[in-house]
Specification:
The protein has about 180 residues and is an alpha+beta fold. Helices cover about 25% and strands about 30% of the residues. The chain has one domain: Umud Fragment, subunit A. β6 and β7 form a beta hairpin.
């Protein structure tokens, strides 16, 4: 976690200067490790993007000590302007593709925010959603503005899990915990 706060402090000058910078991911929804953050003129579905914690959940993230103040989230773009984000009925779907459950409590028993809507994403909005179990993403805070994206995250060095598939396999037991907690 200390790496995130240090990275966050150095990220601001890099953003202002519009230069690539490096960020560390310590959350469980992606492989832990270092990512190069690079701006792109256009972001596409599937791009792994870096953005500030949305204002609607910033206080919650700080109160629960999930990330230090000034840290960023890294999530894939699951939907863009014109796509339909549907978080009703306890499931997260983009254009009818099921991306997993919308939990009501976190792993420690705390209530999660409710974003229960089914609507078309407006111009300039993107849904940042991961199929990873227990991912804190647009299913809880809604779409983000594309202009809030700092850049794409390109893996530089990942701890223990060299590939996304290896990461998914390593977290099968975590998925089971999420499913068991819902029963």
């Amino acid at each position: 976690m200390a790496g995130l706060s240090v990275t966050a402090m150095f990220a601001i000058p890099a953003i202002i200067l519009d230069r690539p910078f490096v960020i560390y991911n310590a959350t469980d929804s992606l492989p832990h490790g270092w990512y190069l953050v690079v701006r792109k003129p256009v972001y596409e579905r599937g791009d792994l993007v870096v953005f500030p914690v949305p204002a609607v959940v910033r206080r919650l993230v700080q109160q629960r000590h999930w990330l230090p103040v000034g840290a960023f989230l890294i999530k894939p773009i699951g939907g863009k302007s014109g796509d339909v984000l549907d978080t009703k009925m306890g499931r997260c779907r983009v254009n009818s593709t099921d991306l997993g459950a919308v939990d009501i409590i976190d792993r420690r028993g705390g209530r999660l925010p409710v974003f229960s809507e089914a609507r078309r994403l407006r111009k300039g909005e993107v849904a940042v959603v991961s199929a990873a179990c227990c991912s804190f993403d647009s299913r809880y805070f809604g779409p983000i503005r594309e202009r809030d994206i700092i850049g794409v995250a390109e893996p530089l060095w990942l701890e223990a899990c060299a590939t996304r598939q290896a990461h998914e396999e390593a977290h099968d037991d975590e998925r089971e915990k999420c499913v068991t907690a819902k029963k």
